# Entry
Amino acid sequence: MVRAFSRMARLSGFVARPVTASADRVSRARQSWRALRVLVHVGRGIAITTFVFPRASAAQKRALNRAWSRHLLALLGVEPRVQGEIHEAGGNVVYLANHVSWLDIFVLDAHSPARFIAKAELARWPLVGKLVRETGTIFVTRARKADTLRVNAIAAEALRGGDVLAVFPEGTTTDGTALLKFHGSLLQPVIDSAGHVQPIALRYAYRDGRASRATQYAGDTSLARSFWSICGARDQVIEVIAHPPIAASTRTRRELAALSEAAIRASLGLPSPAQPASATAPQKFAASRDRPR
# Structure
């Protein structure tokens, strides 16, 4: 079965050339076995959201989401390491994180499940779209200003009800070597509800501290090729660096976005927009000693 799956992946264009085991890559057989197990796990997730979620309480849904996401990371061989405390008690908080991969959603859910505000295209993704729809994701068409107003109204109601929301304020993914400007257009609800914004930096690395690009989902990379790349990567670590929450009631949207961007930029060792890239030393991502919680 593994050999057949590997052949299907090669014929479908997931793989550009043969893969053999190396310091950074697993063997083709193990890569195919991982992919197959993940697809089965995704099927199980769809079954849970379809048949269990309608009868589950909000707390039970969060627990199921957290457990499913943690198992997904384990199947992919991605070790999460957390620095700082992720604030969730009482809700009314918005996580702002940099965006590198489709995996970011499940990395955050593995620690503190949140309702994501995501681009509308995500709802149409095969399999993954079904999962994120059923876990309460709020979809926005960023090109339409009126849609932002609609989403802000939904977000405000969710925060008043004690929900935790998550936003990728760059509006798109990067390859992890840069950070785009943070936009604050979706932050008015947390200001109005007197909640908090928490900046969270996400950084993918190998266990020896080197930066990893295996998980990136940027540019012309397709979802299928990104998935196949992650399945083939060895010794992956995702560092989750949680900064102290920022009280939103006394800040403007622009201030909240700028403060969060600065905090995450510092965590990633990236230069400020006004600073030339050469002003920072070459990146070597230091793997945290903190263990998964």
Q: What stands out?
A: Strands lie at 78-83, 93-97, 115-119, 138-140, 164-167, 196-206, 236-242, 246-247. The mean pLDDT is 87. The CA atoms of residues 24 and 268 lie 22 Å apart.
